[in-house]
Amino acid sequence: MSTGPNRILDDFAKLMTDAAGAVQGVGKEVETAFKSQAERWLNGMDLVKREEFEAVREMALKARDENDRLSARLSELEAKIASLSSKA
């Protein structure tokens, strides 16, 4: 009879171990499902990567600088034309 309670405790311990393993497996499945759903949601938002953003930002800064240079050059040429027209 001394093996009876030990066997019950062993069976109970095995049951708890199996239950813990099942809970852990379900937890991993939930985590995987959540991550894939979050990834789909983020992909649907049309977000850009940081590197792409920085590259476009740099292009915009260069374009702005060139626009400022061309605007200054145009003002110079308009001033020359105006001075030539007033002399004629």
UniProtKB/TrEMBL annotation:
Lineage: superkingdom: Bacteria
Keywords: Coiled coil
One Pfam family cited in the UniProt record for this chain: BMFP
InterPro entries: UbiK
Coiled coil region boundaries: 60-87
Protein's UniProt name: Accessory factor UbiK family protein
Organism annotation: Rhizobium setariae
